[in-house]
Structures are given as C-alpha cells and as structure tokens.
Write a structure and sequence with these properties.
The complex is a heterodimer. Chain A is mainly alpha-helical. Chain A has one domain: MetI-like fold, CATH 1.10.3720.10. In chain A, β1 and β2 form a beta hairpin. Chain B is built from 21 helices and twelve strands. Classes of the chains: A mainly alpha, B alpha+beta. Chains A and B meet through α1, α11 and α12 of A and α2, α4, α12 and α20 of B.
Chain lengths: 312, 440
C-alpha cells in the first residue's frame, strides 16, 4: 500500500520511502547530473580516448599513412620487440631520461638553494636562469650546433687550444650522446629550479633553527630536513621530467637527427622515423604504445612514492 | 521586480535545453565545417588548391604565389589558390590532408610522392594531359626522357617541371693555389684529393647530419657512377653487388686518406655551406645551386667539367625529376589539367628571374638569355644532365619503393657508417637487411 507522501508499508509495519514522487525526484537529479557531466565526458572521449583507440587499432594493422591496411594481430609488436634498433633506442632513452631527470634536478635544486641566500639581484638571476627553458628549442639547438658542430666551431677550438684534442661533439657517437644529455640538462634545469624553489619556500625556517640549535650541520639539515620536506614536489617534478624526457622529440631531432649511426636515437625519434620516413605506420604506433605503457608504469611507481612521502 | 526575477531565472529544464541545444549546434557546426572544407577542395567551390614547396629562397614562393594569382581559367573551370607547404614534416601534411580529402588538387612535392600516392589510389593520372602535350607540341619541348620517367604501368603519375641534380663542385682558388687540375677520373680524384688533404682541405665535402640528405645522395651517386645502384635491372632491392662494394671501398680509401671531414657525419646543410664558405672544402658533391646556397657567386665555386669516369669507365651522376602531380580529390579534373598545362607554360618566369637553382626541363627555358647567364646551371645542363640517372638505377623505372629508401633512417645510418670509414661490404649487407623489411 502506498501512502500519499510516497511511503510503502511493508509486512511487519516497516515503512520505506519508495513512492513514485521520491523516485521521480531522484531520477531528475540523476538526469541533471548526467546531462551536465556528459558534454565534458564526451569531449574527453573525443580528445583522449578516440585517438588512443584509433592508434591502438592502427598498431594492429599494416596500414599506410592514408589507408588502414589489413589486420595483422600482434605482428607489429613482435617485429618491434625483436628489432635491435628498438632495444638500442630503448637503451639510449633510458640513459637520456635518467641523466635528464636527475641531472636537471641536481642542478636545479642546487641553484634553487643558492638563490635562497639573500643577495642583491636575486630576482634578476632567477629570470636569467629561466632563459634556457624559455628560449624555443629550435633556437637553442641551432646555437649549440654553431658552438660544437665543426672542428673549427668555438668549443672544439677551445678544447684544441687547451691541448685536449678536437672532439667531434656531434659526429662521434660517444660524444654525441654526452652532448645531447648535457644539452637536455641545460634546457631542463630551470624547470626543476622553479619546482625546487617553490618547495623550499614551503619549509618553515623554524625547523632549520631548531635543528641548528640541536647542533645539526649544513649537510645534516639538507639531508634530514630539506630533502624529506620537499619529497612530494620532488617526486612530482621527477614524474613530469620523465614524461618530458621520454617524449622529447625536438632536442634529439634538431641536434643530431638521432645519429650518428643511430647512437642518439630515442624511442620517440624511432617511432617518428618508422612512421614518417619508412612509412611503416603499424610498427611505429606500436613503439609509441610501448612507450606509453612504460611511462604509465613509471608514473604509478613514482605516485606511490608521493603517497608514501605524504604519509611520512 | 519579482516578475523580472522570474523571467531572468533559468529553470533546470531550460538550462538543460540550452546546454543540449548548444551541444547539438556545436556538433552540427563541426559536421558542416567538415563538409564545406571538403567542398572547397573536392566539391564545386569554384576554386582548387595548388600546394607548392619552398624550392628556393623566400622570393621564389612570393613569385609563385603571384604567378598563380594571374591564372585566369576558361569559363566553367575553377580558379587556383596557392599554398606554400614547408619541407619540415611535409609527409605528414600531405598524408593527413589526402586521407581527410582536404588536400590539394594539384601540387609539387617529394620526388617520389606521386608514385607513392598513385599506388594508394589518390593520384589522377596525367595521360590525357600528356596526350594534349603531344598534340600541341609541348611534349617535344621537354628534355628527352623526362616525361617518360613519370610513366608507370597504370599511366603517367605526374608531369616533370625541374631537375634536382647532384654534381661535383670544386674551389677554383684552392686548385689554382696548389696548381691542381680538376680531376676527370676516380684515380685522378684520389691523387688530387690526397694532395688537398696534405694541405688541410677536404675533397669529399658532404654532410649527413640532421635533415641533411646530401650524404645519402652522394653515396648513391658514387654507386651509380660505378655502374651500380640500390636496385637491380628487375627493379628489386639489390645493394650488395661487386660494383657497389667497389664504390664504397673507394669511399673508404678517401676516408683513410683524410679526404673526408670526420665531422661531416653530423653536418647540417648550414654546417656544410659554412665549410664551403670558409674554404675547408675544396671538392664535394652538391646540388647545381651550391654557389647560390653558399652565397659564393663570384665564380670561385664551379662544377667539374663533367662526371668522373669510374674504374670501369662509366660516367654518371644522380638526378631527381621533380614533378607536379594531380589528385583525384579535385573540383574538376579538366580544371586541374588546364591549370597544370598553364603552369608548365608559364613557369619559365622563375628561371628568367633567377629564382630557382633546380634545372629546367623545358628546352625553351634553357634557351632563354636569362638562363644562359647562369654559368653553373648551364654547365650542369650541358655537361651533367646527359649522364644523369635517377634513384632507381640500375633499375629502369621510378616506383613507390623509392620513397621508402630516399631519406630513410637505414640509408642515413649506412652513410654515417661509410663516412666514418666503416667496412664497405658489411655496411652494404646491413643496409640490404635493414631495408628489406620495408619491401615486405
């Protein structure tokens, strides 16, 4: 039996609010909510999910740039994972990322610590130190090329004058790797410096004062107070920089084109070349998917560290 | 006041209605813009797109745009719009446009692009236009063999409009200072190069760094010069041949004799030009416009008198037959053909105004007094074009396969290996095995 106010009397005298009026109100709210959220969800699906699904589909086909081709299952992944070029590129991507993340973090944190000191022109220094990050990569890569490309370029000439030989910074595979990594640290450290500066600003001075009164030295204060207290933003900056490094196409492509002899080819450059120079869309997209998978795993691991840091 | 508030208040239902309406409008707008875009390129919009590459300095594209603006189509045919497409990522630009039916009706582009898109069904064959050229005499104005190079079993994929040739250059002042005579054979090249190396000059000036494909071209040219190439007579990939090995052994000898700049592995085109300008390079393989691209236009840099004779006596150089192609996605095929015919007839203005370093394919343009004043280009037409072979050599026809090889990472790695003095046979074997999957 249903009452006028929309309640139902159950056997045993229990009354439950399940009347038609209540149900109607619930549905309207729910519909409103769904309708309001729907455009955003639809937009997200169009922007993120559609390309992802489409690319996943491409990685399972042997298509060209303008046709989808036939279904080949996991053949593209098999071909990629058994290719020496893929593993060579994966190895250099790892090196490039590790050096890029930790090199830029170390330099950025060091500079941020120095800039904590009260000195004249500190704001100006901060702005100047941001320049490598702000200047477009195409401009700075061209400048680096001018500095190191030929034996008569300024830097090799300087090495020669100092009796250190004439290193071929971009032509020798070993030197090219070093040059690309150093360049990456140089363009990335301002970002890390900004992140570290913001994190350091949140550490209260009183903690340092207390530690100093307890007799802690500068290194101890850095290790026991600074590092733990900036751990969360540090992990976040590592995640971001890992993504930046793994996906960094212009740095490599403009400086070395991935050479010499593929020495500086990273996975993203290999994916580009596979798709747009070899016209092998399926394998190229498969490489990109494997990269994405790796990045997701790394991000999850680092996010766990963030949670741990938050707990501590 | 209360009434006013009531009228201003938007009910939940009203809000939803507005939201859904706006969403629907956005979807409809997106759909309608897509279909109108298609109409502009492939429907009946009254205009058609002509896409062109930056073939020379900025002045070229300005002149090309102005030229296209003067095109007056016959009644009922579409007019043409001009769009410059950058070489950087041009493959993606064309591919995405062709795939979405928003591409051009007519375009210049990569040397093998027409063959590639013809295979994928996007090209409108030029057979009818070529037939028209044959009937009105235009066909005979083309240099011998140029039009036929565009022929495939299915038809003519494009119409040639300029030649991008690779020739040997030398520095006259350096040769004069050292009392050297320009070489005419590989043996003489080795002898002259050794002398140049002793004085700190490089005799095989090329680059193989980021975006610089001259190294690839130079290496293929050395193979072709020796009667080899990367394809055999059946147009199959065939890299590890005695002639190719011999040619690459010669390159290895040049590297050992310090005739090759060890940093050239990483040279961009700018680095390469800088080495020529600074007088470090005394010889090298380059386009027919090295003097223009380096800015050394005083005659100091000149092409060798002709291709070098290899150890077996063969003479050859490399040429890319750049072409203009028509696409099926056009408002009017007759309009595309009319525009292309008009463009071929009027493109002489580029050479008359010294805007292009690519060589003309029309005898009538070559004969103009303005072109005849361009010494290096005239020498290239006279002394090098008769020996020019294309990328397909030893094969006989251009094909979509060439697009996979030209500019490929495999070829880049091979060139960088050779410039570093790597083992020729091993490098060629690696090249063969790495290119093979592209043809699977």
């Amino acid at each position: 039996m249903t009452s006028a106010v929309g309640t139902t009397k159950q056997p045993g005298g229990i009354t439950t609010p399940t009347g038609p009026r209540r149900a109607r109100r619930f549905d309207v709210n729910r519909t409103t909510m769904v309708a309001l959220v729907a455009p955003s969800v639809l937009l997200l699906l169009l922007i993120n999910a559609y390309p992802l699904v489409s690319a996943a589909n491409q990685s399972l086909h042997n298509g060209s740039l303008i046709s989808s081709g036939s279904f080949v299952g996991l053949d593209n992944y098999r071909a990629v994972l058994t290719s020496p070029q893929f593993w060579q590129a994966a190895e250099f991507t790892l090196v490039f990322t590790i050096v890029g993340v930790f090199g830029s973090w170390a330099v950025g944190l060091g500079v941020a610590l120095l800039l904590q000191a009260d000195m004249p022109g500190r704001s100006l220094f901060k702005v100047l130190l941001l320049l490598p990050w702000v200047v477009p990569i195409v401009v700075s890569a061209t400048s680096i090329n001018y500095l190191v490309a030929t034996p008569s370029s300024p830097v090799p000439s300087l090495f020669h004058a100092l009796g250190l030989g004439t290193p071929l910074f971009l032509a020798n595979p070993g030197w090219a790797k070093v040059t690309v990594c150093v360049y990456k640290v140089w363009v990335s450290f301002p970002f890390m410096m900004l992140m570290a500066s913001a994190a350091l600003a949140s550490v209260p001075d009183t903690v340092y004062e207390a530690a100093q009164m307890d007799g802690a030295g500068a290194f101890q204060r850095f290790r026991r107070i600074t590092l733990p207290m900036i751990a969360r933003p540090t992990y976040i900056s590592w995640i971001l920089m890992t993504i930046f490094c793994v996906n960094d196409f212009p740095t490599i492509y403009l400086l070395t084109g991935g050479g010499p002899i593929s020495a500086t080819t990273t996975l993203v450059v290999l994916a580009y070349r596979t798709v747009f120079q070899n016209f092998q869309v399926g394998p190229g997209v498969a490489i990109a998917f494997l990269m994405t998978l790796t990045l997701v795993v790394v991000s999850v691991v680092l996010y766990r560290q963030i949670r741990k840091a938050a707990f501590h | 006041m209360a009434e006013m508030r009531a009228s201003q208040h938007v009910s939940r239902r009203g809000f939803l209605g507005i939201g859904l309406g706006a969403g629907a409008a956005a979807v409809l707008a997106a759909c309608s813009s897509g279909s109108s875009g298609k109409a502009a390129s492939g429907g009946s919009g009254g205009t058609m797109k002509f896409w062109d590459m930056p073939w020379a300095a900025a002045a070229y594209n300005v002149a090309a745009k102005n030229l296209v603006a003067t095109y007056k189509p016959a009644s009922g045919l579409p007019s043409a719009t001009y769009q410059e497409i950058q070489w950087a990522n041009f493959t993606e630009t064309f591919a995405s446009a062709v795939a979405s039916n928003t591409g051009p009706a007519v375009s210049t582009g990569g040397g093998f692009q027409a063959f590639q898109y013809a295979q994928q069904g996007a090209i409108a064959y030029a057979d009818h236009l070529i037939q028209t050229f044959k009937s009105n005499g235009t066909y005979n104005d083309f240099l011998p063999g140029q039009v036929e190079a565009m022929k495939t079993p299915a038809g003519y994929v494009a119409v040639p409009w300029q030649l991008d040739i690779r020739v040997w250059w030398y520095s006259k002042p350096i040769f004069s200072k050292l009392g050297l005579t320009p070489p005419t054979t590989w043996d003489q090249l080795m002898s002259v190069g050794t002398t140049l190396a002793k004085h700190g000059y490089y005799a095989f000036g090329i680059g193989a760094g980021a975006g610089d494909f001259l190294g690839q071209h130079a290496m293929i040219m050395m193979m072709i010069n020796n009667g080899g190439g990367i394809f055999n007579a059946d147009n199959k990939l065939d890299v590890v041949t005695p002639r190719n090995i011999e040619a690459m052994e010669f390159v290895q000898q040049m590297a050992k004799a310090k005739m090759i700049d060890p940093a050239s592995v990483s040279y961009t085109t700018d680095n390469l030009n800088a080495q020529w300008k600074s007088g470090k390079f005394a010889m090298g393989i380059n386009t027919a416009g090295l003097d223009v691209s380096t800015g050394v236009t005083d005659g100091s840099l000149a092409p060798l008198p002709g291709p070098l004779a290899g150890p077996h006596g063969e003479k050859a150089c490399l040429v890319f037959q750049n072409n203009i192609m028509m696409y099926k996605n056009t408002p009017s095929q007759a309009g595309s053909e009319a525009f292309l015919a008009w463009y071929i007839k009027n493109m002489g203005t580029y050479w008359k105004n010294n805007l292009l370093v690519g060589l003309p394919v029309l005898k009538s343009i070559i004969a103009t007094p303005q072109f005849q004043q361009q010494g290096p280009r005239v020498a290239a037409v006279k002394n090098w074009v008769p020996y020019a072979k294309n990328y397909a050599s030893v094969g006989t026809v251009l094909s979509p396969s060439l697009a996979k090889v030209d500019g490929s990472q495999q070829l880049t790695a091979f060139v960088q290996t050779m410039l570093g003095g790597g083992d020729p046979k091993q490098a060629l074997q690696t090249l063969q095995s790495s290119l093979q999957p592209l043809f699977a």
